[in-house]
Each structure stands twice: as structure tokens, then as C-alpha cells.
Design a protein that fits this description.
The protein is of the alpha/beta class. It has two domains: about 5-170 and about 215-235, NAD(P)-binding Rossmann-like Domain (Rossmann fold, 3-Layer(aba) Sandwich), CATH 3.40.50.720; about 185-210 and about 240-275 and about 290-305, Alpha-Beta Complex (UDP-galactose 4-epimerase, domain 1). The protein is about 35% helix and about 20% strand. It has ten helices and 14 strands. It has helices at about 15-25, 60-65, 80-85, 85-105, 140-160, 185-195, 215-225, 245-255, 280-285, 295-305; strands spanning about 5-10, 30-35, 50, 70-75, 110-120, 165-170, 170-175, 200-205, 210, 210-215, 235, 245, 265, 275. The strands form four sheets. Strands 3-2-1-4-5-6-11 form a seven-stranded parallel β-sheet, with helices on both faces. A three-stranded mixed β-sheet has the order 12-9-14. Strand 5, helix 5 (about 140-160) and strand 6 (about 165-170) form a beta-alpha-beta unit. The longest helix has 21 residues, at about 85-105.
Length: about 300
């Protein structure tokens, strides 16, 4: 059955992939994005586009946006790096605007909100896998804002018929990850270096490990969370595997067919960290697991970047 969806952050990396998936399934999609770090060229033309700052929308505009909507996927957010540079903007968008969006969804009888939270809500640097049963202790404004969003969603739903689910995303990667003004991940940065014939950069000893999950797998999880069987579910969305930056770099070199030796830079704040998801709940309750192998995902990113201008 065709449904009416709203996707905030629709011109962003994950949002644009989600929009494409929903449209391909035959649903109607309205996307919201201010293009500060998004780019509408990443989203299909058949998406109804609203280029607007979510934080600047009036109550009437929010109600109009959500009228007769079945599911709202709320992905729009100021990112982790912004929390160090412009923390007030993070509060304005990730907390204040998010609260107003959830309240509008409750007023207009939206059936469900699927909210993308983050591993930063935990505040952990490992080494143990992060579990939904852990007490969240965020250590950044961004992490605080994401945890606040989860709680604000519960508040809005408590006095309405609004259903909800939350995805705590780990390190999502894939094609079209970076747009002008956004933050370049280590995958994007080092693939760009390789395309210029430069050696990849690894900070510290390269043993810091992260949970990389491919964007198509994440979209599949978000769509699954929209189903009524998963109302009230908060779950990690990750691969469940910790990959060291050194091993990641080796895999990228193999994909690119390069024999360059990495440059070893000074360690940063991630030294010694191991940030990986416990994905048992996603598997057992959601029926989802990441299926894209790292080599396959990296290969798709490398191929997609071949058609982009050299940085």
C-alpha cells in the first residue's frame, strides 16, 4: 500500500538514499532540507522538495507539512562536529526544532515518527560493545541533543496516538556521503587522497576501531522500523564489527589498486577507542542485520567517486 512520507534531511547523505528507496517502493515523499550540508542533486526529482530551515518553520508550516502524513523519518540534524564549533545551533535544531516537529506530528495525527539517534548518545569510547541496556552518558553537545530527541519523542507520544521508533546509528558510509559544507569521513578523505595519487593519512597507531555500516543496510533498517510491529523500539543500527583505521586503510588501498604506504600522523582524541554496536536487539526484535561486506561497500564508494570532480 502506498503511503505518504516526510523525510527531514532529505538532501543529506542517508536521507537521499532513504528517499530513493521509498519512492522506488511506490510511496509519496516530501523532503525537507535547508541544503547547508545537503544537496538536492542527490535526491530523485520525484521527491517533493521543501528547501527550508527546520528551526525556522512556524507552527502552521509544520502542521501543513505533516497533514495526512503516515510516517515522518526525522534525519535532519546539526552534526557532531558542529557541536564543537556552534553548539547553540545544535541545540536550536536537534532539540528545539525537533521538539516542535514532534509536537506538530502529535497534533496532526501522524501515525509514526522514525527518529535517527546516534552512538554519541552513549558517550562511550569502548572497548565493550554499546548496548541499548547501557546507561547513556553523552560527553558532547551533539550526543546530549540526540538523547534529548529520544526523550522528547516519548513526551510527545505520551499524550497522543503518535507511535515511534529510534535508530541509534553507528558509522554510516556509502556513495554520495559528502556534500560541500559537510564533514568528510576518513573514507571520503583518504579515497580523495588516493585519487590524487597521494598517500592515505592514518592518525596515531591506527588501532582505533569503528563500526562501519553501509548506507543501503541502514535504509533497510529505517524502513523496517516504520512498521507497527516495532513501535517503541530503540535499537542500534551497525555492523556489529569493529574495524581498525589501519585495517580500513588497507582495505581501501586494495579496492583502489594502490600500493602506497600510509602517512602516520599524530594521534587525536580517538586514540585507543573501540566504538562498536551490540546488534543483538536489531537482529532479534527488528529482524535486521547488516549484509554488505566492507570490501563491497568500499568498492561501491570508490566507483561512485570516479565520476566526481577531483578535490
Amino acid at each position: 500500500m502506498a503511503l505518504k512520507h516526510v523525510v527531514t534531511g532529505a538532501a543529506g547523505f542517508i536521507g537521499s538514499h532513504l528517499v530513493a528507496s521509498l519512492l522506488e517502493a511506490g510511496h509519496a515523499v516530501t523532503g525537507v532540507d535547508d541544503e547547508r550540508t545537503g544537496d538536492w542533486s542527490r535526491a530523485p526529482d520525484s521527491c517533493t522538495r521543501r528547501t527550508v530551515d527546520l528551526a525556522a518553520m512556524t507552527e502552521r508550516e509544520l502542521d501543513g507539512l505533516l497533514q495526512d502524513v503516515d510516517v515522518c523519518f526525522h534525519l535532519a540534524a546539526e552534526k557532531h562536529n558542529s557541536s564543537r564549533d556552534v553548539p547553540q545551533r545544535v541545540v536550536d535544531v536537534n532539540i528545539s526544532a525537533t521538539r516542535r516537529l514532534f509536537e506538530a506530528a502529535a497534533r496532526t495525527n501522524v501515525r509514526k515518527i522514525v527518529f535517527t539517534s546516534s552512538l554519541y548518545a552513549y558517550g562511550s569510547l569502548g572497548p565493550e560493545p554499546m548496548s541499548e541496556s547501557d546507561v547513556p552518558l553523552p560527553t558532547t553537545v551533539y550526543g546530549v541533543s540526540k538523547l534529548a530527541g529520544e526523550h522528547l519523542l516519548r513526551v510527545s507520544a505520551a499524550s497522543s496516538t503518535l507511535a515511534w521508533s529510534v535508530a541509534r546509528l553507528f558509522f554510516v558510509y556509502g556513495p554520495q556521503q559528502y556534500a560541500e559544507g559537510g564533514y568528510k569521513s576518513v573514507i571520503v578523505s583518504n579515497f580523495e587522497r588516493l585519487r590524487r595519487g597521494e598517500r592515505p593519512l592514518v592518525l596515531g597507531d591506527g588501532k582505533q576501531a569503528l563500526d562501519y555500516v553501509y548506507v543501503d543496510d541502514v535504509v533497510e533498517a529505517l524502513v523496517a522500523l516504520a512498521g507497527p510491529a516495532h513501535d517503541g523500539l530503540v535499537c542500534n543500527i551497525g555492523s556489529g564489527q569493529a574495524v581498525s583505521v589501519a585495517d580500513l586503510t588497507d582495505a581501501m588501498l586494495a579496492v583502489a589498486g594502490c600500493e602506497l604506504e600510509p602517512i602516520w600522523g599524530p594521534p587525536d582524541w580517538t586514540a585507543g577507542s573501540r566504538r562498536v554496536a551490540d546488534v543483538e536487539l536489531a537482529h532479534d526484535a527488528l529482524g535486521w542485520s547488516a549484509t554488505t561486506a566492507l570490501h563491497d561497500g568500499l568498492s561501491r564508494v570508490w566507483v561512485s567517486m570516479a565520476g566526481e570532480p577531483r578535490g
